[in-house]
Amino acid sequence: MSAPHAARAPFDPHDPLGVDDLLSPEDRAVRDTVRDWARDRVLPHVADWYERGELPVIRELARELGAIGALGMPLTGYGCAGASAVQYGLACLELEAADSGIRSMVSVQGSLAMYAIHRYGSEEQRQEWLPRMAAGEVIGCFGLTEPDHGSDPASMRTYAKRDNGDWVLNGRKMWITNGSVAGVAVVWAQTEEGVRGFAVPTGTPGFSAPEIHHKWSLRASVTSELVMDDVRLPGDALLPGATGLGGPLSCLNHARYGIVWGAMGAARSCFEAALDYARSREQFGRPIAGFQLTQAKLADMAVELHKGILLAHHLGRRMDAGSLRPEQVSFGKLNNVREAIEICRTARTILGANGISLEYPVMRHATNLESVLTYEGTVEMHQLVLGKALTGIDAFRG
């Protein structure tokens, strides 16, 4: 027998499917903590940072994020929060609702650099780096992509060779978030025994990280090149637990999971901006929210937004249960980023000319998502991952 209508909660335009009912009190507390931090520390300034093309307070923000437990959230020990995958996802959503650059900084710190050291590093490396990284005292970066090798990391040219117990590292990495402010770089290189990872202190002679400028996306973010010119490292700089591409690819999979949630944060910000604008903007004597075409746009945006949030939540539960597959992460990344971009573009049409102004978040999110669409695996790569899973045929080199 169904419950009486009087017991039903009123319809919430911001949570039309009642997804909050799936969250525990602890989940909501994590979400609200990150949301409040982003509202107070990022939203008042991010349009200016974006316009200037810089993130001038990144070190300060990193320490604050460390203080609320947002760095390396799902990792355990070494000062990490040991949060659930769903809680980490909720944090990513709230961070990217502020700006993709902020979520990227946190993702690279925790899901790439810290995750690599936590999973593949020695105990000495974990003790040396992770507590300071979790506190935001040391920022990390992750060097895999090269100028000529993005989607095909197996062809990387960065090389490390042994020399009397040391390693000598040469090569270049490109499009590296946090690079020029990092204290440690996790760098992947070819060796005689396959691809290996190294924890490289960025003050090591021969290492440099020139910042990349003239970006039209992720402007409130530090993006750099990494240059290694005869960088000599002690033997214990090697991450002992990873040999082959499986190491860096597992890190990328962890980061992609955060993107599945984060993209919905950017989409939510644009949807809410469009909804508020439509209610207040008047044309032909009434709010544009009263016109059928506008309502159709808002309805379609809401459907895709909350479908994406449900998908992210489902993948998070699978990750917490230890049953999440890489193909499922590709499913989420492919769908959610693609739909988020479409939501942003539709929101821009509702705002009209105001949609291109930094007084509103829409164009900033839309341009940021153009980067999110292709980093951590392009659309085509995730389509081929799913295609291989569906057909059993590898088409990557077809």
TrEMBL record:
The record places domain Acyl-CoA dehydrogenase/oxidase C-terminal at: 245-390
Signal sequence range: none
Q: Which Pfam families match?
A: Acyl-CoA_dh_1, Acyl-CoA_dh_M, Acyl-CoA_dh_N
Name its co-factor(s).
FAD
Q: SUPFAM superfamilies given for it?
A: Acyl-CoA dehydrogenase C-terminal domain-like (SSF47203), Acyl-CoA dehydrogenase NM domain-like (SSF56645)
Name the keywords, alphabetized: FAD, Flavoprotein, Oxidoreductase, Transit peptide
* KW Oxidoreductase (keyword) present: yes
What InterPro entries does this protein's entry cite?
A: Acyl-CoA_Oxase/DH_mid-dom, Acyl-CoA_Oxase/DH_mid-dom_sf, AcylCo_DH-like_C, AcylCo_DH/oxidase_C, AcylCoA_DH/ox_N, AcylCoA_DH/ox_N_sf, AcylCoA_DH/oxidase_NM_dom_sf, Glutaryl-CoA_DH_mitochondrial
Q: Where is this region: Disordered?
A: 1-23
Domain Acyl-CoA oxidase/dehydrogenase middle as annotated: residue spans: 141-231
Q: Where is the Acyl-CoA dehydrogenase/oxidase N-terminal domain?
A: 24-137
Q: Which family does it belong to?
A: Belongs to the acyl-CoA dehydrogenase family.
Q: What is this protein called?
A: Acyl-CoA dehydrogenase family protein
Task: Specify the taxonomic lineage.
Answer: Bacteria, Bacillati, Actinomycetota, Actinomycetes, Kitasatosporales
